[in-house]
């Protein structure tokens, strides 16, 4: 199943466009504050040389941007996993020191998969589609217990299960 395998690139594609725009804006705002506002209110001697200072400004802008992108990611990713999206988005914003993010990545549910028959999002631990009753996980035709698609023999009743995997 290719849906369960997620590469970094696929995960980045999940981030909504609005999060990219906010991240870009935050980056620009940090540059503006660090390079235009701060030098006006401090003595030139108190700041490091301009190349160093602008490097610090760029890095800080990038860090801010990445945090915003990650918030956007959690917002969308929690939705497609059938989790409480609003709660988790607020949690990663409010909880300090990235603990909200750590908690999210530890506790997040597996991705939901679309039901092959009706397209409803089905939790990864579901055996049947809640909308149409389709058997999402392959079952042994003899004893009805869930088995893996590549099994040749049922591990519970020992019968041959040359099933057609969907
Ligand atoms: Zn269905
Ligand atoms: Zn069986």
Report on this model:
The structure is a single chain. A two-stranded antiparallel ribbon has the order 1-2. It is mainly alpha-helical and 166 residues long. The model has no long low-confidence stretch (mean pLDDT 88). The protein has two domains: 8-109, no CATH class; 112-166, no CATH class. It has helices at residues 8-14, 17-41, 50-80, 85-94, 99-107; strands spanning 113-114, 121-122. The structure holds zinc ion (ZN) (2 copies). One zinc ion binds next to loops.
Layout of helices and strands, plus pairs?
Elements: H1 8-14, H2 17-41, H3 50-80, H4 85-94, H5 99-107, E1 113-114, E2 121-122
Antiparallel strand pairs: 1-2
Helix pairs in contact: 2-3, 3-4, 4-5
Bound molecules: zinc ion (2 copies).
Residues 140, 142-143, 145, 154, 156-157, 159 line the site of one zinc ion (ZN).
Overview in brief:
With about 170 residues, the chain is an all-alpha fold. About 50% of the residues lie in helices and about 0% in strands. A two-stranded antiparallel ribbon has the order 1-2.
Uncertain segments are none
What structural class do the secondary elements suggest?
mainly alpha
Q: What count of structural domains?
A: 2
- Tell me what portion of residues adopts beta-strand conformation: under 5%
What is the approximate shape?
A: elongated
Which bin fits the share of residues in helices?
A: 40-55%
Largest beta-sheet characterization:
2 strands, antiparallel
Q: Please write the string of helix (H) and strand (E) elements.
A: HHHHHEE
Task: Give the end-to-end Cα distance, rounded to a whole number of Å.
Answer: 10 Å
């Amino acid at each position: 199943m290719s849906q369960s395998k997620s590469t970094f690139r696929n995960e980045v594609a999940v981030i909504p466009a609005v999060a990219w725009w906010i991240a870009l804006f935050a980056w620009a705002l940090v540059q503006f504050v660090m390079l235009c506002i701060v030098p006006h209110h401090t003595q030139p001697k108190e700041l490091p040389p301009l190349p160093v200072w602008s490097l610090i400004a760029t890095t800080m802008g990038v860090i801010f941007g990445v945090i915003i992108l990650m918030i956007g990611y959690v917002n969308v990713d929690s939705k497609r996993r059938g989790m409480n999206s609003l709660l988790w988005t607020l949690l990663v914003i409010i909880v300090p020191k990235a603990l909200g993010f750590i908690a999210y990545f530890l506790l997040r549910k597996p991705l939901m998969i679309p039901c092959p028959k009706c397209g409803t999002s089905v939790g990864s631990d579901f055996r049947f589609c809640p909308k149409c009753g389709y058997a999402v996980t392959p079952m042994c035709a003899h004893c009805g217990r869930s088995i893996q698609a590549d099994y040749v023999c049922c591990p519970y009743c020992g019968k041959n299960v040359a099933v057609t995997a969907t």
